[in-house]
Amino acid sequence: MQIKPSCPICNSHDIGVFNGRENARCVNCGALERTRFMFLLLNRMGILHPDTSVLHFAPEPGMFRRLSQLCSSYTPMDYNVDQYDKWSPEVRFVDLCDVDGTVTGTYDLIIHNHVLEHVPCSVSSVVAKLKARLNPGGVMLFSIPTRAGVATSEDLDPSLTHEERHARFGQWDHMRLFGADDVIEILNGSEDNGAELVPAYDYISPKEREMALLPPAIERLSGHSIYKVAAAS
Ligand SMILES: [Zn+2]
Fold it and tell me: Which among 67, 137, 194, 232 has most CB atoms closer than 10 A?
């Protein structure tokens, strides 16, 4: 019997079109390519245990449910908490430009998908402050929209209109457009955060990529790939 491709998070075989991309969004749990890839990585890296403490920014419903079940210490946070009222009122407020004022505790795992393009302050400073919240041996995994063949452009000027932000950075509330030419340097900054691309095929095979309906772009600097920052030793 032939095994059909499925969502690694909820096992649904129903993965549909999103933003014009085929096989993009799980119809059952809503997971996009990057979320499905991240969950595969979490499993293959052996990170998820009952005692793993997890901090999750901008939690996706499917991932939220699985991590809530798998890990006893799971903290979901977002800047816009109202959007979660329908399915999870316990998402807490975070301002990533004020990590020390809004995040308490330390964690074994910090995850976020397509969050850093929104923060209206230094990206490398945010990464450094989150890295400082990792327990020894801990790791932060995240994705960001990344355009090939260009350098990163950014404008934090609060007077920029939604239209200008959409034209320059791809969405009305984006502060920057990460470019593959220098994204690693931007993430590392003067803080020297040690950010790196996760080599997809160190953890999954091309066949497994196909079975989760993930695009080949997960293995290069792209909006589908995952970056990693490890705790300071
Ligand atoms: Zn799913």
Answer: 67
Spell out the per-residue pLDDT of the chain, length 233, in tens.
Answer: 678 999 999 999 999 999 999 999 999 999 999 999 999 999 999 999 999 999 999 999 999 999 999 999 999 999 999 999 888 778 999 999 999 999 999 999 999 999 999 999 999 999 999 999 999 999 999 999 999 999 999 999 999 999 999 999 999 999 999 999 999 999 999 999 999 999 999 999 999 999 999 999 999 999 999 999 999 87
Instruction: Let me know if 19 is exposed, middle or buried by CB neighbors in 10 A (0-12, 13-18, 19+).
Output: exposed
Fold annotation for 48-197+217-230: Rossmann fold (3.40.50)
Q: What is the pTM of this model?
A: 0.96
Give dist(CA 138, CA 157) in Å, integer. Answer: 34
Sheet holding 146-147, edge to edge: 146-147, 176-179, 153-154
The one-letter amino acid code at 47 reads I
Largest CA distance in the chain: 59
List residues, by chain if needed, whose CB lies under 5 Å from ion ligand 1.
Answer: 7, 9-10, 12, 26, 28-29, 31, 62
